[in-house]
Automatic annotation (TrEMBL):
Localization per Swiss-Prot or TrEMBL: Cell inner membrane; Cell membrane
Membrane spanning residue stretches: 47-69, 81-100, 121-149, 161-183, 216-236, 248-270
One Pfam family in the UniProt entry: ABC2_membrane
Any one GO biological process: lipopolysaccharide transport
Ranges where the ABC transmembrane type-2 domain occurs: 48-273
GO CC list: plasma membrane
Entries under InterPro entries matching the protein: ABC2_TM, ABC2_TM_bact-type
Protein name: Transport permease protein
Gene Ontology molecular function, alphabetical: ABC-type transporter activity
Length: 281
């Protein structure tokens, strides 16, 4: 009588299991170590150190206040226009700085990637965490400046974590796409700054969306469909400044769904290219 042996079928994981997200919980300490290292290296050998975290958005907001406020006339009847520009710049730190840091995290750690095995996903997540430290410091400076412009927080500030999370989620998705592409195509590192600067100009970072949308007319709604980050940036500003949001509920929902879709898309592309990183980089 022959002994029957069980048939074992080995199949690759399907659906969300294929993304292997549990690595982040297993290697949480590694994410923290990478984030700390990035923060320390960023301001090493600088005379002002961490002061640049506040000084950069302040200077940019000051220039924007002059160009868009005085020259373009957006500041008419708005004594707190500088504060609005500063809040938009903080939102851009959550989004733009995160994308830039995540996009370069693989190429910047090429020696380690080719010699040591560790979950590659820890690098973009650590870059996201490190970028948000800058955001928190800038937010602290913003809150200190509010009384000088006679602006006080409203109940809208309770929604700040939601806008913050949506922007960071979208940035992580875009950043992972760029990081995976940059490993194979170094041209991305030259195109990326141009794209980010253009996106900042055409997003309500340094100018109010309500006034610009009025000038765009019917094109305003189409513009928001192709740039959901603009909705999140304006919502981020509203949570800090209060007043009227000026964005429809469906647009907010569209931006939130877009953040999740972009994150999943970026994660999928990152995972598909992950096996080639050590060989190509």
């Amino acid at each position: 009588m022959t002994e029957t042996k069980p048939l074992i079928l080995v199949r690759p994981p399907q659906g969300l299991a294929a993304l292997n997200l549990h690595e982040l919980t297993q290697y949480g300490e590694l994410v923290r170590t990478f984030a700390q290292r990035e923060i320390l290296l960023r301001y090493r050998q600088t005379a002002l150190g961490v002061i640049w975290v506040v000084l950069q958005p302040l200077l940019t907001a000051g220039i924007a206040s002059f160009v868009f406020g005085k020259v373009a006339g957006f500041a008419q009847g708005d004594p707190a226009f500088f504060l609005r520009a500063f809040s938009g710049q903080i939102a851009w730190t959550v989004f733009g700085l995160s994308i830039f840091k995540i996009s370069t995290c693989l190429v910047g750690n090429s020696a380690m990637l080719s010699k040591v095995f560790f979950p590659r996903l820890t690098l973009p997540v650590a870059s996201t965490v490190a970028a948000q430290v800058d955001t928190l410091v800038a937010l602290g400076a913003f809150l200190l400046l509010m009384p000088f412009f006679h602006v006080m927080p409203t109940l809208a500030i309770l929604t700040l974590p939601l806008w913050f999370a949506a922007l960071a989620t979208m940035a992580l998705g875009v950043g992972m796409m760029m990081a995976a592409l940059m490993v194979s195509y170094r041209d991305v590192q030259f195109v990326l700054p141009v794209w980010l600067n253009s996106l900042m100009v055409f997003s309500p970072v340094q100018w109010p969306l309500a006034k610009m949308a009025g000038k765009l007319g019917a094109l305003g709604a189409l513009y928001l469909l192709f740039n959901p980050a603009a909705i999140l940036i304006e919502g981020f500003r509203w949570s800090l400044m209060g007043g009227s949001l000026g964005i429809a509920a469906w647009q907010v929902g569209y931006a939130a769904v877009s953040s999740v879709v972009i994150l999943l898309g970026g994660l999928l592309i990152f995972r598909m290219q992950e096996r080639r990183f050590a060989d190509v980089i």
